[in-house]
Amino acid sequence: MAAPRVLLVFSTDGTWCRSVLTGFMDYARGRDWNLLHYHPAMDIDWLVETWSPTVVVTGPEFSGESVARFGAAQLVSVPVDRSEQGVASVCVDDERVAQLAAEHLLDRGLGNLTTFRFDESMFATTREAAFVARAKQAGACVPPGWGNPAYTQAERGENPGALLDWLRSLPIPCGIFTCTDGWGRTVPAWAREAGLRVPDDVALIGANNDVLECELISPPLSSVMIPWEFVGREAAEMVRAALANVTIAGRRSVVAPMAVVARRSTDLLAIDDELVTRAVAWIRDNAERRLTVPMVARAVGGGRQRLERRFRRALDRTVQEEIRRAHVERAMRLLATSTAPLSEIAERSGFTSASLLSAAFQREVGTSPGAYRRRARRHHEKPKDE
User: Fold this and answer.
1) Max alpha carbon distance in the chain (Å)?
2) What is the dihedral of CA 100, 147, 183, 364, to 10 degrees?
3) SS3 sequence of 315-342
4) What is the pLDDT of residues 195-248, one digit of tens each?
5) What is the pTM assigned to this prediction?
C-alpha cells in the first residue's frame, strides 16, 4: 500500500512558522507518511491536482473560502481557528496570552496599560481585547492603544509623527503590550525619539518569545512564551487521526501559552509605596532562599502587620503570595536552562521539597514542572537540520 500523502502548505518566513514545522516533523519522524512541504506563494492548485494529498496542513494565509482548492483532502488549519467552517484547527489561546502579558505588567505595579498593533489580524484584535479587559478588571487606566480605530492605516504605516504624538500622550509610567515580538521592535526607537525611557517611562512586553527578535531589541524585550513546537505536534496528531479514518472536520485544539520570559524592557517596579518596593525587590533578589514573611519584614525594616497591610493596598496580594511567585519564577528559569533533577530545582528555588514545588508550580503556571521543562526545551532547541 502506498504511503499516505501529507502536504504542508506553510511559510518558513518567521521563527514561529519554523518552530511549528519542527514540532510537526518531530512527531512525524519514523511514521510511514509521504510528506511534502510547499510555500503558500507557490502554485498550490497545480500541486493538489497532480499530487492528490490525503491531508493538507495549511498556515494562516488561507481563508475559509480557500477550502475548495484542496479537493477531497482533509484539512488542518494552523494557527487560525477555522473550526466553525468545518476545518480541523490547532490554535493558540490568544486571550490567555494577553492576560499573562497584562498580569506581568500589573505585577510591576503599573497602573496605566495599553496596546500596540499594526493591523487587524484576528490574533491581534483578540489579544488586544483580552488585554484591555484584564487591565480594566484590575482597575488600571487604559488609554487608547496604537492600532485602535482612532488611528488610520495611513497614520500607522506612513505618518511617524502620529506615532510620536501617541507615545507622548500616554500617562507615565505606562505598560505597552505589543501583541507580537516583531511589532515590539518598532516601539523603543520611537519612544526614545519621543523623549521616553524604556522601561522607566514605558515598559514593553511582546508575545511568541522569539529569542533572537527579543534580544535584538534594545533593551531586550520581555515576552509571553508560546510553545509553537507543541502546536506543530498537535497538528501532526490531527493528521494521524485523519489517516486512521477518524473524522476530524471541525475539531479544535487550543494550546495555552507557557509563561512570561522577563527581560529588561519590563525591569521596573512602579509602586508608590517605598516599603513595598523594597520588599518586592528583596524577595526577588533572594528567591533562591526559603523565605518567610517575618524574614521579609525584618529585611526591609517594617513590622509584619504593617507590611501586609501596605502590600495588599499597593499590589492587592499578600507577602506570602509574592514569595511564592518569586520562587516559581526562579524555578521556571532553572527548569528551562538546566538539567538538574526536580529535587535540586526545588532546593535552589526556595522550596523544601519537590512536591511543594510541583503544587505551587501547578497553581501559578497551570502545568507541571516536567511538562513546562519539556516544552521549554523544544522551544529553545534548534531544528534538527540547522
Assistant:
1) 77
2) 0
3) HCCCHHHHHHHHHHHHHHHHHHHCCCCH
4) 999 999 999 999 999 888 898 888 999 999 999 999 999 999 999 999 999 989
5) 0.81
DSSP codes of every residue in 137-152: HTT-B-PPPBTSTTS-
Three cell numbers, residue 304: 509584619
Query: Would you say how long the chain is, in residues?
Result: 386
pLDDT digits (tens, 9 = 90+) for 135-181: 999 999 999 998 865 555 444 455 667 888 899 999 999 999 999 99
Per-domain boundaries in the chain: 5-92+228-256, 94-225+261-266, 274-380
- Between CA 101 and CA 180 the distance in angstroms is 11
Q: Which residues pair with 9 in a beta bridge?
A: 38, 58
- Looking at domain 94-225+261-266, which CATH architecture does it have? 3-Layer(aba) Sandwich (3.40)
Residue 265 in grid coordinates: 524592557
**How many CA atoms within 13 Å lie on the side-chain side of 386?**
8
Contact 135, 113 (CB under 8 A): yes
CATH number 3.40.50.720 given to 5-92+228-256: no
Residue 225's DSSP bridge partners are 208, 259
